[in-house]
Amino acid sequence: MTNRRGRAEIFPAPGPDRRFTGPATGDERRLLAAFLADQRTTLELKCAGVEGELSRRSVEPSTLSLLGLVRHLADVERRWFRVVLAGQDVKPLFSSEADPDGGFDEAAAGPEAADEAWQAWRAEVAFAERFVAEAPDLDVEGDDAWRGRVCLRWVLVHMVEEYARHNGHADLLRERIDGAVGI
Predict the structure, then answer these.
(1) DSSP letter (8 states) at residue 145
(2) At what angle do helices 28-47 and 111-134 cross, to 10 degrees?
(3) Separation CA 35–CA 163 (nearest Å)
(4) For the CA atoms of 135, 137, 142, 148, what is the dihedral angle to 10 degrees?
């Protein structure tokens, strides 16, 4: 490890933390969307400055990597918002039925792979944000093979949980990569 610092020192850089600036009062949609936005921003911060080979470094025996997390979360965003809630017939970007862990296992090093993953993730986040903003209410429903009928409210809560869990993974991976630690 290099540059070991205290957990509160790495995120963010000097200046105000750009996470957790959303509303603390207001309607349910606004609060859930803000919590999810904060978790998405946290992922970006935890991956900032890690490029190339380092972005796909895992801790054996796991194949989990920062690049793999971005790829996985792009597929998760796509699945819940495009497929389940919007009813679009689209395939995952980085995984498949035959290789459900392809987002992690097939994460190749190189700036092109990282750029592709971040572009895909940002496109899926943009779609999800539009979907949430334009939905008539949080009771919009979709069919999911795993859970059955789900509503937008449930998907938003699940996505906050999904990001929070994987942001914890990102903390540990980042510390192993370069000693950087954060909250």
Answers:
(1) T
(2) 170
(3) 10
(4) 150
Is residue 32 very low, low, confident or very high in pLDDT (cuts 50, 70, 90)? very high
pTM: 0.87
Which residues in the chain belong to E strands, given as ranges? 141-144, 148-151
How high is the pLDDT of residue 1? Answer: 43
What is the C-alpha to C-alpha distance for residues 122 and 17, in angstroms, rounded to an integer?
21
Q: What is the pLDDT of residues 123-155, one digit of tens each?
A: 999 999 999 999 999 999 999 998 999 999 999
End-to-end C-alpha distance for the chain, whole angstroms: 18
Cα separation, 43 vs 37, whole angstroms = 10
Distance CA 66, CA 54 (A): 8
Instruction: Report yes or no: 65 and 59 within 8 Å, Cβ to Cβ.
Output: no
Tell whether the model's pLDDT for residue 104 goes beyond 60: yes
Type of residue found at 177: I
